[in-house]
Amino acid sequence: MAVSDQQLIQAWSEVLRLSRTAPGQSVAILCSVVTHPQTLRCATVAAQAAGAMVTRIELPPINADKALSRDVFGYLGETPLTGNATAIAALKASDLVIDLMGLLFSPEQAEILACGTRILLAVEPPEVLVRTVPTAADRERVLAAAERLRGARTMHVTSPAGTDVSFRLGEFPTICEYGFVDAPGRWDHWPSGFLFTFANEGSSEGILVIDRGDIVLPHKRYANERITLQVRDGYVQSIEGGVDADLLKEFMRSFQDPEAFAMSHVGWGLQPRCNWSTLALYDREQTTGQDARAFEGNFLFSLGPNNEAGGKRSTPCHIDVPLRHCTVSLDGEVVVREGKVLDGNLR
Fold first, then answer.
1. Is 216 helix (H, G, I), strand (E, B) or coil?
2. CATH number for the segment(s) 5-131
3. What is d(CA 95, CA 117) in angstroms, rounded to the nearest whole number?
4. Half-sphere exposure of 136 (CA within 13 A, CB side)
């Protein structure tokens, strides 16, 4: 259902409050031709109402000759900001960047964050943003889970569909997403509510089974049949199944980059206001599928880059797959049992 400007401005005002936006701060709103006009309009009004000095930076799109879709996560690393020294300088000079375009996994994003600038990504439709306004309680829950994940050295994941995979941990930091940016140099994504880390290089081993009803992103498709991924030495060695498996393989091979098949981040969803079923209600170009990434109890694994966490792997191909009904164990202790989060085991 559509939302009014008043509702969306109120939502933005709360997120900016949680993000410690104060009078006199500089807020840059980064946008493009694909930015939702209501989101841009209401974010601008809310930032001005918070007393911030607001600057809009609109950049033209690139990569139409490379990307296979219009999805902002369909081709990563190179963005309209790449090589644009003027725009980069303006963003680095800002206290907060509201990213309505998509800088994820780009070196420019890391460079801007290193200056202490906060970056909040928000590219979902307005009605999704209003439904998933973050709270301080979201932050506390994600941080509690992160404390447990940060101390773990192994993750083991199983499912009734046949997933049985292990990851060694500790080489990379744990990353929390709770929907707002309340510290200098922090990046987050609204909506969110999940956490993840990256497996040690070359350590992932086992079988990942994408069952019927599980979601493949950025395809934004529910699997109609099982897809079996054999993982060895940190890379997917084979992808087996029917047409759904062929679609996944064809997409990944189109990048002509072996790093597309590397294990990337692993973690689980904690957001009860996000839903597994939401993707079925939208046209594919209306959403990036953030509900799917964050819904409570999923096991979210990814293939592709790890440079977001300081690793050396950078590839424009990034696959996110939230699995349902999984059991996730850290150092032998269950933290998610068959898709149900066990908060008591996270402290």
1. strand
2. 3.40.50.2300
3. 5
4. 3
- How far is it, in rounded angstroms, from Cα 282 to Cα 279? 6
Q: Are 54 and 27 in contact (CB under 8 A)?
A: yes
The whole-number pLDDT of residue 80 equals 82
User: Domain segments of the chain: what residues?
Assistant: 5-131, 136-346
Condensed to tens digits (0 to 9), the pLDDT of residues 54-100 reads 999 999 876 666 666 666 666 666 788 888 999 999 999 999 999 99
DSSP count for the chain of H helices, then E strands:
8, 20
Contacts of 303 (CB under 8 A, 6+ apart): 236, 252, 260, 261, 262, 263, 264, 317, 318, 319, 321
| CB-count exposure of residue 2 (10 Å: 0-12, 13-18, 19+) | exposed
If one counts every other C-beta atom within 10 angstroms of the C-beta of residue 344, the result is: 7
* CB 264, CB 304: distance < 8 Å: yes
Give ∠ CA 340-328-139 in degrees, rounded to 5: 65
User: What phi-psi label fits residue 44: left (phi over 0), alpha (psi between -120 and 50 degrees) or beta?
Assistant: alpha
pLDDT digits (tens, 9 = 90+) for 126-182: 999 999 999 999 999 999 999 999 999 999 999 999 999 999 999 999 999 999 999
